[in-house]
Amino acid sequence: MSNVIFLLSGPNLDELGIREPALYGTTTLAQHVARFTERASAAGCAVVHRQSNFEGDLVEAIHEARQDVALAIVINAGALTHYSWSLRDALANFSGIKIEVHLSNPLAREDFRHVSTLANVVDGSIAGFHALSYDLALEAVLALRNASA
């Protein structure tokens, strides 16, 4: 297994920084990715980032992570979290570490956001800590990597 972490970003995350800043903050996706990559690099990991507004592109990225035998997938699937069975099935077939991440807390929001189709196939979920959510996801990946070493 490699030390590559796939960081996957779903629909509308390319709008971070301008989309509902009171809810998601003013940090852009590029800034989140740069910080995550810098911190991962310091821990000896490389990062492959994919963002798409299309479900199939994210499924393909999960397949790529599996074929490349990546260490982990950290995924913020955005609204796809709540209804994408294809993402769920693709993640179920990935044997590495899987962390679901959300900037906001879905359980503190609308009822439809209380369901995660991904929850039962990921190692854990981190939500509601805004930009810190990505830091915590990386810490979880590193802790799980070290625990299995």
Question: Could you walk me through the main structural features you see in this protein, from its secondary elements to its overall organization?
Answer:
- The protein is of the alpha/beta class.
- The protein has 5 helices and 5 strands, in the order βααβαβαββα.
- The chain has a 5-stranded parallel sheet, sandwiched between helices.
- The longest helix is centred in the C-terminal third of the chain and has 17 residues, at 132-148.
- The N and C termini lie close together (11 Å).
Briefly characterize the structure.
This protein has 149 residues and is α/β, with parallel strands linked by helices. 38% of the residues lie in helices and 18% in strands.
Helix content: 25-40%
Question: What topology, given as strand order, has the largest sheet?
Answer: 2-1-3-4-5
Output the radius of gyration.
14 Å
Mean pLDDT: 91
- What is the strand tally? 5
Structural class by helix and strand composition: alpha/beta
Which spans of ≥5 residues are poorly predicted at pLDDT below 50?
none
Q: How many helical elements? A: 5
How is the main sheet built? 5 strands, parallel
End-to-end distance? 11 Å
Our estimate of the beta-strand percent is: 15-25%
Order of helices and strands: EHHEHEHEEH
Query: Which outline best applies?
Result: globular
Keywords:
single chain; 149 residues; alpha/beta; 5-stranded parallel beta sheet; 5 helices; 5 strands
